Amino acid sequence: MASGRILFAFRNLSITARITPYRSLSTLVLAEHEGGSIKTSSLSAVEAAKSLDGDNSVSLLLAGSGQSLKEAAAHAASSHPSISQVLIADSDKFTYPLAEPWARLVHLVQQRGGYSHIIAASGSFGKNVLPRAAALLDISPITDVTKISGSNLFIRPIYAGNALSTVRYTGSSPCMLSIRATSFPIASLPADSKSDAASIDQVDLSTLDEDDSVGKSRYIKLSSQNVERPDLGNAHIVVTGGRGVKSAENFKMIDKLAEKIGAAVGATRAAVDAGFVPNDLQVGQTGKIVAPELYMAFGVSGAIQHIAGMRDSKVIVAVNKDADAPIFQVADYGLVGDLFEVIPELLEKIPEKK
Ligand SMILES: Cc1cc2nc3c(=O)[nH]c(=O)nc-3n(C[C@H](O)[C@H](O)[C@H](O)COP(=O)(O)OP(=O)(O)OC[C@H]3O[C@@H](n4cnc5c(N)ncnc54)[C@H](O)[C@@H]3O)c2cc1C
Protein backbone atom coordinates (compact mmCIF):
# COMPACT_ATOMS: atom_id res chain seq x y z
CA MET A 1 0.00 0.00 0.00
CA ALA A 2 2.74 2.39 1.06
CA SER A 3 4.78 1.59 -2.04
CA GLY A 4 1.62 2.15 -4.16
CA ARG A 5 1.29 5.64 -2.77
CA ILE A 6 4.94 6.35 -3.47
CA LEU A 7 4.52 5.09 -7.01
CA PHE A 8 1.46 7.30 -7.42
CA ALA A 9 3.34 10.32 -6.10
CA PHE A 10 6.27 9.48 -8.37
CA ARG A 11 3.94 9.26 -11.39
CA ASN A 12 2.53 12.68 -10.55
CA LEU A 13 6.04 14.04 -10.37
CA SER A 14 7.03 12.57 -13.68
CA ILE A 15 3.94 14.09 -15.32
CA THR A 16 4.84 17.52 -13.94
CA ALA A 17 8.41 17.11 -15.15
CA ARG A 18 7.17 16.36 -18.64
CA ILE A 19 4.80 19.27 -18.80
CA THR A 20 7.12 22.07 -17.67
CA PRO A 21 9.34 22.20 -20.82
CA TYR A 22 6.27 23.12 -22.86
CA ARG A 23 5.74 26.43 -21.06
CA SER A 24 4.70 29.25 -23.33
CA LEU A 25 7.34 30.78 -25.55
CA SER A 26 9.24 33.94 -24.77
CA THR A 27 11.17 35.76 -27.45
CA LEU A 28 13.86 38.40 -27.30
CA VAL A 29 13.88 40.61 -30.40
CA LEU A 30 17.11 42.54 -31.01
CA ALA A 31 16.03 45.92 -32.34
CA GLU A 32 17.71 48.79 -34.14
CA HIS A 33 16.62 52.38 -33.82
CA GLU A 34 17.35 55.60 -35.63
CA GLY A 35 16.28 59.16 -34.90
CA GLY A 36 14.20 58.02 -31.92
CA SER A 37 12.18 55.41 -33.86
CA ILE A 38 12.39 51.67 -34.22
CA LYS A 39 13.49 50.54 -37.67
CA THR A 40 10.83 48.85 -39.78
CA SER A 41 13.01 45.76 -40.19
CA SER A 42 13.01 45.30 -36.39
CA LEU A 43 9.21 45.48 -36.36
CA SER A 44 9.26 42.73 -39.00
CA ALA A 45 11.28 40.68 -36.50
CA VAL A 46 8.43 41.27 -34.01
CA GLU A 47 5.96 40.04 -36.67
CA ALA A 48 8.10 36.92 -37.02
CA ALA A 49 8.08 36.43 -33.24
CA LYS A 50 4.29 36.74 -33.28
CA SER A 51 4.04 33.94 -35.84
CA LEU A 52 5.98 31.55 -33.55
CA ASP A 53 3.00 31.17 -31.26
CA GLY A 54 -0.02 33.26 -30.30
CA ASP A 55 0.92 33.20 -26.58
CA ASN A 56 4.51 34.18 -27.21
CA SER A 57 5.65 36.94 -24.89
CA VAL A 58 7.87 39.32 -26.85
CA SER A 59 10.58 41.49 -25.27
CA LEU A 60 12.37 44.03 -27.40
CA LEU A 61 16.02 44.76 -26.61
CA LEU A 62 17.27 48.26 -27.46
CA ALA A 63 20.69 49.67 -26.78
CA GLY A 64 22.08 53.15 -27.12
CA SER A 65 22.56 56.20 -24.98
CA GLY A 66 20.86 59.44 -24.12
CA GLN A 67 17.73 61.07 -25.47
CA SER A 68 17.44 59.16 -28.75
CA LEU A 69 17.35 55.86 -26.83
CA LYS A 70 14.61 57.20 -24.54
CA GLU A 71 12.56 58.32 -27.53
CA ALA A 72 13.10 55.00 -29.30
CA ALA A 73 12.02 53.10 -26.17
CA ALA A 74 8.82 55.18 -25.94
CA HIS A 75 8.15 54.56 -29.63
CA ALA A 76 8.88 50.83 -29.26
CA ALA A 77 6.54 50.48 -26.28
CA SER A 78 3.54 51.49 -28.36
CA SER A 79 4.70 50.42 -31.81
CA HIS A 80 3.35 46.87 -31.94
CA PRO A 81 0.63 45.12 -29.93
CA SER A 82 2.77 41.98 -29.57
CA ILE A 83 5.54 43.70 -27.61
CA SER A 84 5.04 43.13 -23.89
CA GLN A 85 8.31 44.56 -22.61
CA VAL A 86 11.01 46.92 -23.85
CA LEU A 87 14.46 46.35 -22.34
CA ILE A 88 16.89 49.21 -22.67
CA ALA A 89 20.65 49.09 -22.26
CA ASP A 90 21.69 52.70 -21.74
CA SER A 91 25.47 53.14 -21.86
CA ASP A 92 28.16 54.96 -23.82
CA LYS A 93 29.26 51.49 -24.95
CA PHE A 94 26.14 51.35 -27.11
CA THR A 95 26.23 54.83 -28.64
CA TYR A 96 27.23 53.06 -31.87
CA PRO A 97 25.94 49.57 -32.64
CA LEU A 98 29.24 47.67 -32.35
CA ALA A 99 28.85 43.92 -32.61
CA GLU A 100 31.10 42.89 -29.71
CA PRO A 101 29.39 44.78 -26.87
CA TRP A 102 26.00 43.93 -28.38
CA ALA A 103 26.86 40.21 -28.40
CA ARG A 104 27.88 40.42 -24.71
CA LEU A 105 24.63 42.23 -23.99
CA VAL A 106 22.55 39.52 -25.68
CA HIS A 107 24.43 36.87 -23.70
CA LEU A 108 23.78 38.73 -20.44
CA VAL A 109 20.08 39.35 -21.12
CA GLN A 110 19.57 35.73 -22.23
CA GLN A 111 21.21 34.40 -19.05
CA ARG A 112 18.83 36.46 -16.95
CA GLY A 113 15.67 36.07 -19.04
CA GLY A 114 15.97 32.46 -20.26
CA TYR A 115 14.18 33.22 -23.55
CA SER A 116 13.12 30.36 -25.77
CA HIS A 117 13.89 32.32 -28.97
CA ILE A 118 16.10 35.22 -30.02
CA ILE A 119 15.29 36.97 -33.31
CA ALA A 120 16.89 39.76 -35.33
CA ALA A 121 16.33 41.03 -38.85
CA SER A 122 18.88 39.75 -41.33
CA GLY A 123 20.50 43.13 -42.10
CA SER A 124 24.11 44.07 -41.51
CA PHE A 125 23.38 44.65 -37.80
CA GLY A 126 21.81 41.22 -37.25
CA LYS A 127 24.43 39.47 -39.39
CA ASN A 128 27.12 41.11 -37.28
CA VAL A 129 25.68 40.47 -33.82
CA LEU A 130 23.95 37.07 -34.05
CA PRO A 131 26.96 34.84 -34.83
CA ARG A 132 28.95 36.42 -32.00
CA ALA A 133 26.09 36.10 -29.52
CA ALA A 134 25.46 32.51 -30.69
CA ALA A 135 29.12 31.64 -30.04
CA LEU A 136 28.88 33.05 -26.51
CA LEU A 137 25.69 31.05 -25.89
CA ASP A 138 27.14 27.94 -27.59
CA ILE A 139 24.23 27.53 -29.98
CA SER A 140 23.87 27.48 -33.75
CA PRO A 141 21.68 30.19 -35.32
CA ILE A 142 19.32 29.60 -38.24
CA THR A 143 19.76 32.38 -40.78
CA ASP A 144 17.59 34.10 -43.38
CA VAL A 145 14.31 32.53 -42.28
CA THR A 146 11.47 33.42 -44.65
CA LYS A 147 8.65 31.42 -43.05
CA ILE A 148 7.89 30.07 -39.60
CA SER A 149 5.95 26.82 -39.60
CA GLY A 150 6.21 26.06 -35.87
CA SER A 151 8.22 27.03 -32.83
CA ASN A 152 11.14 24.92 -34.07
CA LEU A 153 10.32 24.54 -37.77
CA PHE A 154 11.57 27.13 -40.23
CA ILE A 155 11.84 27.68 -43.97
CA ARG A 156 14.87 29.35 -45.50
CA PRO A 157 16.14 29.72 -49.08
CA ILE A 158 19.23 27.84 -50.24
CA TYR A 159 21.21 27.80 -53.52
CA ALA A 160 20.69 31.55 -54.05
CA GLY A 161 16.96 31.20 -53.57
CA ASN A 162 16.51 28.38 -56.10
CA ALA A 163 15.31 25.95 -53.44
CA LEU A 164 13.65 26.25 -50.05
CA SER A 165 14.78 24.09 -47.18
CA THR A 166 12.73 23.22 -44.12
CA VAL A 167 14.88 23.23 -41.01
CA ARG A 168 13.90 21.68 -37.66
CA TYR A 169 15.84 23.15 -34.74
CA THR A 170 16.86 20.42 -32.33
CA GLY A 171 19.63 22.26 -30.49
CA SER A 172 19.54 23.65 -27.00
CA SER A 173 17.65 26.75 -25.95
CA PRO A 174 17.50 29.50 -27.07
CA CYS A 175 16.62 29.00 -30.71
CA MET A 176 18.26 31.92 -32.51
CA LEU A 177 16.96 33.19 -35.85
CA SER A 178 17.70 35.88 -38.35
CA ILE A 179 14.68 36.65 -40.50
CA ARG A 180 14.30 38.29 -43.89
CA ALA A 181 12.31 41.42 -43.10
CA THR A 182 10.67 41.41 -46.53
CA SER A 183 9.06 38.04 -45.73
CA PHE A 184 7.37 39.35 -42.56
CA PRO A 185 5.60 42.54 -43.62
CA ILE A 186 4.15 44.59 -40.79
CA ALA A 187 0.39 44.61 -40.64
CA SER A 188 -0.42 48.31 -41.09
CA LEU A 189 -0.62 49.75 -37.61
CA PRO A 190 -1.63 53.34 -37.09
CA ALA A 191 0.85 55.32 -34.98
CA ASP A 192 0.34 54.62 -31.28
CA SER A 193 -2.19 51.94 -32.22
CA LYS A 194 -1.68 50.14 -28.95
CA SER A 195 -3.78 51.19 -26.03
CA ASP A 196 -1.57 49.56 -23.34
CA ALA A 197 2.03 50.55 -23.93
CA ALA A 198 4.57 47.86 -23.04
CA SER A 199 6.64 48.30 -19.89
CA ILE A 200 10.10 49.84 -20.29
CA ASP A 201 12.83 48.34 -18.09
CA GLN A 202 16.51 49.14 -17.76
CA VAL A 203 19.03 46.33 -18.15
CA ASP A 204 21.47 46.20 -15.22
CA LEU A 205 24.83 46.58 -16.98
CA SER A 206 27.10 46.40 -13.92
CA THR A 207 28.60 43.01 -14.93
CA LEU A 208 29.13 44.21 -18.48
CA ASP A 209 31.17 47.15 -17.20
CA GLU A 210 33.67 44.68 -15.71
CA ASP A 211 33.99 42.76 -18.99
CA ASP A 212 37.27 43.77 -20.71
CA SER A 213 36.42 42.10 -24.03
CA VAL A 214 33.65 44.65 -24.58
CA GLY A 215 36.14 47.40 -25.51
CA LYS A 216 38.01 45.39 -28.17
CA SER A 217 36.39 47.09 -31.15
CA ARG A 218 35.92 50.80 -31.51
CA TYR A 219 33.85 53.08 -33.65
CA ILE A 220 35.78 55.17 -36.17
CA LYS A 221 33.25 56.81 -38.49
CA LEU A 222 30.04 56.31 -40.40
CA SER A 223 30.13 56.83 -44.14
CA SER A 224 26.79 56.71 -45.85
CA GLN A 225 25.18 58.34 -48.80
CA ASN A 226 23.50 61.52 -47.77
CA VAL A 227 20.57 61.41 -50.14
CA GLU A 228 16.95 62.00 -49.36
CA ARG A 229 15.86 58.73 -50.84
CA PRO A 230 13.96 55.82 -49.41
CA ASP A 231 16.16 53.16 -47.85
CA LEU A 232 16.86 50.43 -50.44
CA GLY A 233 15.78 47.64 -48.09
CA ASN A 234 12.37 49.20 -47.33
CA ALA A 235 11.52 51.18 -50.49
CA HIS A 236 8.19 50.63 -52.26
CA ILE A 237 9.84 51.18 -55.64
CA VAL A 238 13.39 50.26 -56.65
CA VAL A 239 15.03 51.34 -59.93
CA THR A 240 18.08 49.24 -60.68
CA GLY A 241 20.80 49.72 -63.25
CA GLY A 242 23.12 47.02 -64.52
CA ARG A 243 26.29 46.87 -66.57
CA GLY A 244 24.17 47.88 -69.59
CA VAL A 245 24.07 51.44 -68.18
CA LYS A 246 27.76 51.55 -69.14
CA SER A 247 29.14 54.36 -66.94
CA ALA A 248 28.82 56.29 -63.69
CA GLU A 249 27.84 59.33 -65.75
CA ASN A 250 24.99 57.43 -67.44
CA PHE A 251 23.87 56.12 -64.04
CA LYS A 252 22.65 59.67 -63.30
CA MET A 253 19.68 58.80 -65.57
CA ILE A 254 18.76 56.01 -63.18
CA ASP A 255 19.10 58.48 -60.28
CA LYS A 256 16.87 61.01 -62.03
CA LEU A 257 14.20 58.43 -62.75
CA ALA A 258 14.31 57.18 -59.14
CA GLU A 259 13.99 60.73 -57.86
CA LYS A 260 11.03 61.42 -60.12
CA ILE A 261 9.04 58.42 -58.91
CA GLY A 262 10.21 58.41 -55.27
CA ALA A 263 12.22 55.21 -55.63
CA ALA A 264 15.42 53.85 -54.15
CA VAL A 265 18.32 53.12 -56.49
CA GLY A 266 19.74 49.63 -56.81
CA ALA A 267 22.55 48.13 -58.88
CA THR A 268 23.91 44.79 -59.98
CA ARG A 269 27.28 43.58 -58.79
CA ALA A 270 28.69 44.14 -62.28
CA ALA A 271 27.63 47.81 -62.08
CA VAL A 272 29.18 48.10 -58.61
CA ASP A 273 32.40 46.34 -59.66
CA ALA A 274 32.67 48.65 -62.67
CA GLY A 275 32.58 51.59 -60.23
CA PHE A 276 29.29 53.10 -61.47
CA VAL A 277 27.88 53.25 -57.92
CA PRO A 278 28.98 52.35 -54.35
CA ASN A 279 28.52 48.78 -53.17
CA ASP A 280 25.79 49.57 -50.62
CA LEU A 281 23.41 49.76 -53.61
CA GLN A 282 24.07 46.17 -54.69
CA VAL A 283 21.02 43.95 -54.86
CA GLY A 284 21.41 40.20 -54.82
CA GLN A 285 22.81 37.18 -53.10
CA THR A 286 25.81 39.09 -51.79
CA GLY A 287 24.01 42.44 -51.63
CA LYS A 288 20.66 43.58 -50.29
CA ILE A 289 17.48 41.52 -50.44
CA VAL A 290 14.56 43.64 -51.58
CA ALA A 291 10.87 42.97 -52.19
CA PRO A 292 9.31 46.28 -53.24
CA GLU A 293 5.88 46.79 -54.84
CA LEU A 294 7.65 47.69 -58.09
CA TYR A 295 11.16 46.68 -59.23
CA MET A 296 12.45 48.24 -62.45
CA ALA A 297 15.60 46.73 -63.98
CA PHE A 298 17.48 48.53 -66.76
CA GLY A 299 20.37 46.82 -68.54
CA VAL A 300 20.32 43.90 -66.10
CA SER A 301 20.84 40.41 -67.55
CA GLY A 302 19.17 38.55 -64.66
CA ALA A 303 21.94 36.33 -63.29
CA ILE A 304 20.69 33.97 -60.53
CA GLN A 305 22.77 35.83 -57.96
CA HIS A 306 20.91 39.04 -58.81
CA ILE A 307 17.48 37.38 -59.00
CA ALA A 308 18.11 35.95 -55.50
CA GLY A 309 17.89 39.51 -54.15
CA MET A 310 14.75 40.74 -55.93
CA ARG A 311 12.63 37.77 -57.00
CA ASP A 312 10.01 38.46 -54.27
CA SER A 313 9.23 41.92 -55.69
CA LYS A 314 5.50 42.25 -56.35
CA VAL A 315 5.80 43.62 -59.92
CA ILE A 316 9.01 43.33 -61.94
CA VAL A 317 9.62 45.46 -65.02
CA ALA A 318 12.68 44.79 -67.17
CA VAL A 319 14.17 46.73 -70.06
CA ASN A 320 16.92 44.96 -71.96
CA LYS A 321 17.98 45.05 -75.59
CA ASP A 322 18.56 41.28 -75.61
CA ALA A 323 15.23 39.44 -75.98
CA ASP A 324 16.83 36.28 -74.52
CA ALA A 325 18.07 37.93 -71.31
CA PRO A 326 17.09 35.70 -68.32
CA ILE A 327 15.61 38.72 -66.51
CA PHE A 328 12.56 38.35 -68.79
CA GLN A 329 11.82 34.96 -67.21
CA VAL A 330 11.00 36.62 -63.88
CA ALA A 331 9.63 39.91 -65.26
CA ASP A 332 5.91 40.68 -65.17
CA TYR A 333 6.42 43.32 -67.85
CA GLY A 334 9.35 43.14 -70.26
CA LEU A 335 10.43 45.60 -72.90
CA VAL A 336 13.04 44.62 -75.47
CA GLY A 337 14.65 47.96 -76.15
CA ASP A 338 17.54 50.31 -75.63
CA LEU A 339 17.56 51.82 -72.14
CA PHE A 340 19.14 54.97 -73.58
CA GLU A 341 15.92 55.56 -75.51
CA VAL A 342 13.47 54.22 -72.93
CA ILE A 343 14.67 56.13 -69.85
CA PRO A 344 14.71 59.60 -71.49
CA GLU A 345 11.20 58.90 -72.79
CA LEU A 346 10.03 57.87 -69.32
CA LEU A 347 11.62 60.99 -67.81
CA GLU A 348 9.82 63.12 -70.33
CA LYS A 349 6.41 61.47 -69.91
CA ILE A 350 6.29 61.02 -66.12
CA PRO A 351 4.89 64.19 -64.57
CA GLU A 352 6.95 66.13 -62.03
CA LYS A 353 6.25 65.37 -58.36
CA LYS A 354 3.98 67.99 -56.86
C1 LIG B 1 29.31 34.28 -55.59
C2 LIG B 1 28.69 35.33 -56.46
C3 LIG B 1 27.85 36.25 -55.88
C4 LIG B 1 27.24 37.24 -56.67
N1 LIG B 1 26.39 38.13 -56.08
C5 LIG B 1 25.75 39.02 -56.87
C6 LIG B 1 24.81 39.93 -56.30
O1 LIG B 1 24.60 39.98 -55.08
N2 LIG B 1 24.18 40.78 -57.13
C7 LIG B 1 24.40 40.81 -58.48
O2 LIG B 1 23.77 41.61 -59.18
N3 LIG B 1 25.28 39.96 -59.05
C8 LIG B 1 25.97 39.10 -58.27
N4 LIG B 1 26.89 38.28 -58.85
C9 LIG B 1 27.26 38.52 -60.25
C10 LIG B 1 26.30 37.90 -61.24
O3 LIG B 1 26.68 36.57 -61.50
C11 LIG B 1 26.31 38.69 -62.57
O4 LIG B 1 27.63 38.74 -63.05
C12 LIG B 1 25.80 40.10 -62.47
O5 LIG B 1 24.56 40.13 -61.79
C13 LIG B 1 25.62 40.67 -63.87
O6 LIG B 1 25.25 42.01 -63.77
P1 LIG B 1 24.55 42.74 -64.98
O7 LIG B 1 23.25 42.08 -65.26
O8 LIG B 1 24.55 44.19 -64.69
O9 LIG B 1 25.60 42.57 -66.17
P2 LIG B 1 25.57 41.67 -67.46
O10 LIG B 1 25.33 40.25 -67.14
O11 LIG B 1 26.78 42.03 -68.24
O12 LIG B 1 24.27 42.19 -68.24
C14 LIG B 1 24.16 43.45 -68.83
C15 LIG B 1 22.84 43.45 -69.57
O13 LIG B 1 22.61 44.75 -70.10
C16 LIG B 1 21.99 44.60 -71.36
N5 LIG B 1 22.23 45.84 -72.11
C17 LIG B 1 23.42 46.30 -72.58
N6 LIG B 1 23.23 47.50 -73.18
C18 LIG B 1 21.91 47.77 -73.09
C19 LIG B 1 21.11 48.87 -73.54
N7 LIG B 1 21.65 49.91 -74.17
N8 LIG B 1 19.78 48.82 -73.28
C20 LIG B 1 19.22 47.76 -72.65
N9 LIG B 1 19.93 46.72 -72.19
C21 LIG B 1 21.26 46.72 -72.41
C22 LIG B 1 22.64 43.39 -71.98
O14 LIG B 1 21.81 42.82 -72.97
C23 LIG B 1 22.82 42.49 -70.74
O15 LIG B 1 21.73 41.60 -70.62
C24 LIG B 1 27.50 37.29 -58.07
C25 LIG B 1 28.34 36.34 -58.64
C26 LIG B 1 28.94 35.37 -57.86
C27 LIG B 1 29.82 34.36 -58.50
TrEMBL record:
GO molecular function annotation: electron transfer activity; flavin adenine dinucleotide binding
GO cellular component terms, A-Z: mitochondrial matrix; mitochondrion
List of residues binding FAD: 243, 268-269, 282-286, 299-306, 320
Highest taxon of source: Eukaryota
Record's keyword terms, sorted: Electron transport, FAD, Flavoprotein, Mitochondrion, Transit peptide, Transport
Localization annotation: Mitochondrion matrix
Assembly description: Heterodimer of an alpha and a beta subunit.
PANTHER family for the chain: ELECTRON TRANSFER FLAVOPROTEIN ALPHA, ELECTRON TRANSFER FLAVOPROTEIN SUBUNIT ALPHA, MITOCHONDRIAL
Protein name: Electron transfer flavoprotein subunit alpha
